[in-house]
Structures are given as C-alpha cells and as structure tokens.
Amino acid sequence: LNGDGITDVTIGGLGGASLFWTRDVAELYANMTFDPVKINLQQSQYQCTHRGHKSVCVTTTFCFHYLVKSHQKDPNSAADIRYTVTLDALR
What we know:
The chain is mainly β. The protein contains no helices and six strands. The protein has strands spanning 9-13, 16-20, 26-35, 47-50, 53-56, 59-68. InterPro entries: Integrin_alpha_Ig-like_1, Integrin_dom_sf.
C-alpha cells in the first residue's frame, strides 16, 4: 500500500479498519578470507610475537554487506555491525 514493495496488511471489521505497514527487512552477508590460506605451523616465515609468545600470524579479512528488501533505496543508509571472532581458543 505504501509503495515500498513489501507486503502490507489491512484488517477491517464493522465500522473500523487497521492498516499495518511492514518494516524493512534486510539480509546480511558475511565473508572471511585468510592469508595464507593454509597454515603450516613449522614454517618460520609466518612467525611473529603475540603477548610475548612466538606465534603463527595470519591476516584475516572480513567483508560484510547487506541488502534491504524494500524498493525504496537510501544511498546514505548504514548499519552498525558488532562481531566477535574466536579461533582455536583452547590451544
């Protein structure tokens, strides 16, 4: 009804009606890449120091993008994303 491309609902009865507009729905996509792709713990070229211990260092890239389902696009739209990553926490 409001032209945003998302289904709206109207419920009517004796002497009255209610209109319910659906809120925007967004799909969030995430991708994670590693460099190097494979880790050999015996190779010294990836060694570094982390908290005073020798470690194997890996560069990780996170990419997030989202898609809003309505037809009304806002070029200035933004989303706050908070995430926590834990890899081999028990090692």
